[in-house]
């Protein structure tokens, strides 16, 4: 008889089974021959159980067990026995017991593996992805995907309880008219010469579901972006997408907080304190140089123009005279050598800064700095008025230039200092809402205004009375440990306002009709007020499992260059195949 029907999983063997006969199935994780006895670690997704083969239990089975090798797939029957105190393995959940095997079925053999599972962390990632099914056999990967499943299950549970309907919106959708949107396009065979696009997000469909009176929508949505290579981005990723009718910002934010708290509690047993912290975009940027500050450590950026008002330092003078800004990070409690300080200057330049000025307060209260002789005698006293924590040993890292770019650089330097100086508590989960975003941003290159979020985002009241740059959006982003987890907004539901926004973005009437005619029309046919948000599930699971990248929590991810080494996609297709779509490759570089 084949031992196919296990009676328990390997990792679930407990005291209550001692003396009982059970059937286990799984993979041979390791084998040790000890004289007459053969020990096998049998692994399934729940864990490992030690099997013992002894000629005394069955000489035939013992003989068979000699042939077992790593990753053979087997089934065994045997009796659960308590281990002697000396042989207990406390590192294993099942380490108090072993199975004395009386029957063995070998379901399949395995030849030598392309890499050893327990050293997969050291092998080239492309090899891991080519043999992803082997990589996924590793306990750490099995745990990550078990957790991912639990997260998605908890999301569904919570949202169902609150009256959300789950929808699937189309994956074959309409390409953006002008093609600048980094979409994947799909040729249509039945409409030769026409193309679908894969959605970057279900944004417009979910809004239309609100127009349909569905009231509360969610989707575990696959989104596609044909972006250029950037660290830790995937061409397809999953987000929890949701939308609600008759809501304002606080209703959506409270709902999302509830969802996250529920998932953390249910999956990790961690209690979050609600409401989550909130911060305006202006505050986040002026204090941390980022719209997604990592608040696990403080180290604020401090504006310190006043300290250099009468400086003779040429580069600072030039910045001040042209309306620029001077900002500093004040690091306390770290002893930097000159070499280290100069390395931070190199690092800042590596980030794109023109320079970085450091001023070190010595034990005797005087300063040490490459520009020391240009600093006034009472510099420390004056600086202390701006940096109250300044003390012996403190270092000021100073940058000067145009506000936005300088603060962005200081923000990045802050993060690097935080991690290099171990200022970050790795176990902390620091959630933050960022609100009060600008509605629009100006692109110097294209000389155009574009939406900071997307063009369906409502402006805050009073938008008519201010310049484009001053308009704010009814948008909110949720940030965890400096990573943007998600974002959303209250949307426009009124045609007139939507058209005005399109106008500001430079869309002419014809393009507006071509691209968004269906939305504008829907907005005239009874569109309720609504808002929503999307949360990146891959990122959330990455942070919950403390994995190093989203690729570690996506079952079959692409490499950083968007390639799938397992299936070998993308791949060229033949002329005959292309002909069905009336397409031809001209083989000329684009
Ligand atoms: N559609 C947005 C996104 O994918 C999220 C939202 O506004 O709901 O980022």
Bound molecules: aspartic acid
The chain-level structural class is alpha+beta
Using the CA coordinates, give the radius of gyration. 30 Å
Give the biggest beta sheet.
8 strands, mixed
User: Count of DSSP helices?
Assistant: 15
* Alpha carbon gap, first and last residue: 62 Å
Task: Tell me the total number of β-strands.
Answer: 22
* Lateral arrangement of strands in the main beta sheet: 6-9-10-22-21-20-17-11
Outline: globular
Strand content bin: 15-25%
Arithmetic mean pLDDT:
95
User: Helical amount among residues, as a percent range?
Assistant: 25-40%
Low-confidence stretches: none
Write the layout of secondary structure elements.
Elements: E1 21-34, E2 37-44, E3 47-53, H1 59-65, E4 73-82, E5 97-108, H2 125-130, H3 132-135, H4 139-161, E6 165-166, E7 185-187, E8 195-197, H5 203-211, E9 216-224, E10 236-245, H6 249-268, E11 277-280, H7 281-288, E12 301-303, H8 314-321, E13 325-331, H9 338-351, E14 357-361, E15 367-368, H10 379-386, E16 395-401, H11 403-420, E17 431-435, E18 440-443, E19 448-451, E20 475-480, E21 483-490, H12 495-504, H13 509-522, E22 530-536, H14 537-545, H15 575-579
Parallel strand pairs: 3-5, 6-9, 11-17
Antiparallel strand pairs: 1-2, 1-4, 2-3, 4-5, 7-8, 9-10, 10-22, 12-13, 13-16, 14-15, 14-16, 17-20, 18-19, 20-21, 21-22
Helix pairs in contact: 4-6, 4-14, 7-11, 12-13
């Amino acid at each position: 008889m084949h031992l196919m029907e296990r009676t328990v999983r390997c990792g679930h063997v407990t005291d209550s089974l001692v003396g009982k006969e059970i059937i286990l199935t799984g993979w041979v994780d390791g084998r040790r021959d000890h004289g007459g006895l053969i020990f096998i670690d049998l692994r399934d997704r729940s864990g490992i159980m030690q099997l013992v083969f002894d000629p005394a239990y069955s000489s035939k089975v013992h003989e068979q067990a000699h042939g077992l090798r790593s990753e053979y797939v087997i089934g065994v029957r045997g009796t659960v026995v308590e281990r002697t105190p000396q042989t207990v393995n406390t590192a294993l959940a099942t380490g108090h017991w072993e199975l004395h095997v009386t029957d063995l079925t070998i379901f399949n053999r395995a030849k030598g593996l392309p890499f050893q599972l327990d050293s997969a962390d050291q092998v080239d990632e492309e090899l891991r992805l080519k043999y992803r099914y082997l990589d996924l056999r590793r306990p750490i990967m099995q745990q990550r995907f078990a957790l991912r499943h639990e997260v998605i299950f908890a999301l569904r549970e919570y949202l169902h309880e609150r009256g959300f309907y789950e929808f699937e919106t189309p994956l074959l959708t309409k390409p953006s008219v002008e093609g600048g949107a980094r979409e994947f396009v799909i040729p249509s065979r039945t409409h030769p010469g026409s193309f679908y696009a894969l959605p970057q997000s279900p944004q417009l469909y979910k809004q239309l579901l609100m127009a349909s009176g569905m009231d509360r929508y969610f989707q575990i949505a696959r989104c596609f972006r044909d972006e250029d290579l950037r660290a830790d981005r995937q061409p397809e990723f999953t987000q929890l997408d949701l939308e609600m009718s008759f809501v304002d910002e606080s209703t959506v934010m409270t709902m999302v907080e509830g969802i996250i708290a529920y998932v953390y509690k249910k999956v990790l047993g961690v209690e979050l304190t609600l409401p989550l912290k909130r911060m305006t975009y202006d505050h986040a940027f002026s204090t941390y140089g980022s719209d997604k500050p990592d608040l696990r450590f403080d180290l604020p950026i401090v504006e310190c123009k006043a300290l250099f008002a009468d400086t003779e330092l040429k580069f600072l003078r030039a910045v001040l005279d042209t309306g620029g800004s001077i900002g500093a990070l004040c690091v306390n409690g770290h002893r930097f050598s000159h070499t280290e300080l100069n390395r931070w200057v190199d690092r800042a330049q590596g980030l794109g800064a023109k320079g970085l000025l450091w001023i070190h307060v010595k034990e005797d209260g005087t300063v040490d700095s490459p520009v020391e002789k240009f600093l006034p005698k009472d510099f420390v006293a004056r600086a202390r008025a701006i940096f109250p924590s300044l003390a012996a040993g403190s270092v000021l890292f100073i940058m000067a230039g145009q506000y936005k770019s300088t603060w962005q650089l200081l923000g990045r330097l802050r993060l690097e200092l935080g991690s290099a100086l171990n200022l970050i508590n790795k176990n902390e989960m620091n959630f933050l809402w960022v609100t009060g975003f600008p509605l629009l941003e100006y692109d110097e290159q294209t000389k155009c205004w574009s939406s900071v979020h997307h063009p369906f985002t409502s402006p805050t009241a009073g938008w008519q009375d201010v310049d484009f740059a001053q308009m704010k959006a009814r948008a909110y982003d949720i940030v965890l440990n400096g990573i943007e987890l998600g974002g959303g907004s209250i949307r426009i539901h009124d045609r007139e306002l939507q058209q005005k926004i399109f106008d500001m973005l430079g869309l002419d009437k014809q393009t507006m009709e071509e691209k968004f005619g269906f939305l504008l029309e829907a907005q005239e046919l009874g569109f309720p007020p609504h808002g929503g948000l999307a949360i990146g599930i891959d990122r959330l699971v990455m942070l919950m499992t403390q994995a190093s990248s989203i690729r570690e929590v996506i079952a079959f991810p692409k490499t950083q260059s968007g390639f799938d080494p397992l299936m070998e996609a993308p791949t060229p297709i033949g002329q005959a195949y292309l002909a069905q779509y009336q397409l031809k490759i001209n083989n000329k570089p684009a």
